[in-house]
Amino acid sequence: MNTATQTLRPQFERARRAWRGSPLPGFFAWWGAELRALLPARWQMLFGGGNVWCLLHHQDGQWSVRRSGQPQTSAPWSDALDAPAQQAMVNAAVADIDRQDLRLALCLPQEAVLSRRLVLPEAARDNLRQIGAFEMDRQTPFRIDQVYYDLRELPGPAPAGRIAAELVVAPRAAVDAQLQHLRNAGIAIDAVDLCKDDARLGVNLLPPEMARAHRDPRRRLNLVLAIGALLLLVLCLGQYLHNRQEALATMQAQVDDMRTDAQKIALLRKQLEESTGASGFLARRKANSVAIVDVLQDLTARMPDDTWLERFTVESSGGRIGIQGQSAKAASLIDVLQGSKLITGANFQGVIQRDPATNKERFYMDAQLRNPATGKPAASSSAGGAQ
């Protein structure tokens, strides 16, 4: 794990420096301040959060504390006080600040440090402190073991491919005495910085090995909150997918119901068409057929009085007529039926024979029904026989 951490540390440091060098931190700081300004005063204290830097000043044997960016200072106290008294004075000065957010910086005056402006390649941005150690002999009259130093990137334009930086150096002899006094008083500091107006400059001359380590108790809570937020996001996405699946299932069920209804409608339409076709067929069949009663009436009107029928048949499928009977002059019946509008194609079947009992000619005729409207052969509406 340590090897992996050491391997990834340069990448993390590069990402951190790139983040700090971008305009995003300033934008989010401004945005957060604007949002906090809209909250009530009590809520502003709750959502303030973040590191609060307080500056320790030492002048003429007197110590004082003020918050970075504010001109008000605490009541001064003498460095001749004992350790508990000095700790009490510091605690009283920072009593309104959460201990988790409190950061103390020893603030040096401008005349106690030496600063140099440097123009460096962009590749130096990832390791400015090491570059400052290399430049110490060329830019200052001190050796690296004689000073506390830091190198910070300056905002503003710079030549293409290069960055502007400031090397800040303070002799150890001037700083060690104050650090030793604070150490004896039991006051731990987080940085050694310069005062620029009412705020700190933004450097830390204190070596990393001398910096105070802070344990952030909020980190575990933030981790739990982040995991909770991630779980809620996963649950929301799962609920969204579940809702989509339910909506899809509902739509599929509606489509299935509509398909079933459509099939029923198609079946009813088919049945209706078949019924319509059947009724039309029957209507056409009826229109193209001849009633037997009409045929019998026509035959009755045309047959002579000396002729009677013994048998009369009509085929329902083809409309063929069979007429069997006796007549005084059977041969003349063909001429009699030629003027009929219902019967056509009358012909004798077989030989005409005389019946000795009645002295009449026995005959059998074959004919065809026809539609009186069109004149074409037609089927009869029913089959029947007469004798």
UniProtKB/TrEMBL annotation:
A Pfam family: PilN
Keywords: Membrane, Transmembrane, Transmembrane helix
Segments traversing the membrane: 221-241
InterPro entries: ATPase_NBD (IPR043129), Extracell_DNA_Util/SecSys_Comp (IPR052534), PilN (IPR007813)
Domain of life of the native organism: Bacteria
Entry annotated with the keyword Ribosomal protein: no
Name of the featured protein: Fimbrial assembly protein
